[in-house]
């Protein structure tokens, strides 16, 4: 049995009421099968009222926050939604299966005080509301250079770069024997890549392409980049050294972080975007609910959940609010790493239209039914 995906959308159940669907006992499910999967949630009367919900790792519920849907786990092979008191709110004991694919789950329960039969239907990330890639257009980067199979370090740095990128400085205070990260360069300059000034393990040429589109195309299905435990996605105008990057990955592993970032230097030549991210003295790892798009560090499982949100974005505005939501706002697995800091050498908005970016963010929030949270120290 497999979980059906992109062809299974809410309209199927709006056009054909649940009582007209053939249901059977739900097959045995496991947490491993369900962790990181995406769903629409609804009931037999109102239809699908949540377009995109994540069964995030470790029982967290992503992108839908309700006291009756505080957690998920599997009991006796059945998916259960758990309320904030630790009691089952819905147990999904029925399933609609076609050709071995799980098309929907159904179960009786109470959400928002409403006793009803609830439905879960496999879903996808919604298409970008402004710049969606046309159907049939392939999005897959080709590597000009990549290492032999099996020759890799545990962590990966992926930098969209051009000839002015600062990434060669990242190899200071480190050597090949002590470096715990590989480097992938997605070169966005129109010219032949000019990258001979530093080592690298992967190189792809993606001319005139924006950061997150580059990243999405690099992490296609079957990409060797999925073989790493932690992945850092920095801008190419950040200044740090290899010793800092080594320690950043080490602390991310040590503290079991799914989403993190290095802190930002404050002073001449560095332009932090948010006071929250500025380095704090006497702190090593500071658990926060916000990690900005400039330099996020993902665990592999977190990136697998978030990667589709990057597919067609132009500016990236808003992604740093959406990612924690997708992961269920995991308070103990998100942090700013104060033990190291990086300098942001370009002021905010120096290379793009801020008003257009804000409009894109608002459109993204609407497409995900996301209500923005306010974080102290985040502009």
In short:
With 379 residues, this protein is an alpha+beta fold. Helix content is 16%, strand content 29%.
Helix content: 10-25%
Secondary structure class reads alpha+beta
CATH structural architecture of the largest domain: Alpha-Beta Complex
Shape: globular
Could you name the CATH homologous superfamily of the largest domain?
Spore Coat Polysaccharide Biosynthesis Protein SpsA, Chain A
Number of helices: 7
Poorly predicted residue ranges: 5-11
Give the tally of structural domains.
Answer: 2
The first-level CATH class of the largest domain is given as: Alpha Beta
Rg estimate, integer Å: 22 Å
Distance between the ends: 46 Å
* Beta-strand residue fraction: 25-35%
Q: How confident is the prediction overall: mean pLDDT?
A: 93
The count of β-strands is 21
Pfam family, one: DUF707
InterPro entries: DUF707 (IPR007877)
Organism: Rhizobium lusitanum
Protein name: DUF707 domain-containing protein
Give the topology:
Blueprint: E1 2-3, H1 11-15, E2 24-25, H2 31-34, E3 37-43, E4 47-55, E5 61-62, E6 71-75, E7 78-82, E8 88-92, E9 94-98, E10 101-111, E11 114-122, E12 143-145, E13 155-161, E14 181-187, E15 202-205, H3 211-218, E16 230-232, E17 238-239, H4 242-254, E18 259-264, E19 285-287, E20 297-299, H5 300-306, H6 319-326, E21 334-344, H7 354-367
Parallel strand pairs: 1-10, 13-14, 13-16, 14-15, 18-21
Antiparallel strand pairs: 2-9, 3-4, 3-11, 4-5, 6-7, 7-8, 9-10, 10-11, 12-15, 16-20, 17-21, 18-20, 19-21
């Amino acid at each position: 049995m497999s979980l059906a995906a992109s062809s299974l959308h809410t309209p199927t159940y709006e056009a054909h009421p649940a009582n007209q669907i053939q249901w059977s006992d739900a097959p045995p499910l496991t947490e491993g099968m369900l962790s990181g999967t995406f769903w629409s949630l609804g009931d037999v009367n109102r239809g699908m009222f949540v377009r995109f919900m994540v069964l995030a790792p470790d029982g967290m519920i992503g992108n839908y926050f309700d006291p009756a849907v505080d957690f998920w786990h599997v009991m006796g092979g059945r998916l259960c939604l758990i309320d904030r008191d630790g009691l089952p709110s819905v147990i999904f004991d029925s399933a609609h299966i076609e050709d071995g694919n799980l098309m929907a789950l159904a179960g009786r329960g109470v959400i928002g005080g409403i006793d009803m039969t609830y439905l879960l239907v496999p879903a996808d990330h919604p298409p970008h509301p402004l710049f969606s890639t046309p159907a049939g257009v392939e999005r897959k980067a080709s590597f000009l250079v990549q290492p032999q199979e099996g020759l890799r370090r545990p962590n990966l740095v992926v930098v969209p770069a051009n000839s002015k990128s600062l990434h060669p400085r990242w190899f200071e205070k480190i050597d090949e024997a002590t470096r715990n990260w590989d480097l992938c360069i997605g070169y966005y300059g129109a010219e032949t890549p000019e990258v001979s000034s530093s080592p690298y393990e992967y190189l792809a040429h993606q001319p005139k392409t924006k950061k997150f589109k580059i990243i999405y195309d690099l992490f296609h299905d079957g990409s060797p980049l999925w073989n790493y435990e932690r992945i850092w996605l920095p801008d190419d105008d950040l200044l740090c050294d290899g010793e800092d990057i080594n320690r950043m990955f080490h602390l991310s592993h040590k503290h079991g972080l799914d989403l993190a970032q290095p802190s930002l230097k404050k002073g001449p030549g560095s332009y932090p975007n948010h006071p929250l991210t500025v380095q704090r003295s006497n702190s090593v790892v500071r658990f926060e609910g916000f990690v900005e798009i400039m330099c996020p560090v993902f665990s592999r499982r977190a990136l697998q959940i978030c990667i589709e949100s990057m597919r067609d974005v132009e500016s990236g505005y808003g992604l740093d609010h959406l990612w924690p939501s997708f992961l269920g706002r995991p308070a103990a697995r998100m942090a700013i790493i104060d033990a190291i800091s990086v300098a942001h050498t370009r002021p905010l908005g120096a290379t793009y239209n801020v008003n257009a970016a804000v409009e894109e963010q608002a459109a993204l929030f609407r497409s995900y039914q996301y209500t923005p949270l306010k974080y102290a120290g985040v502009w």
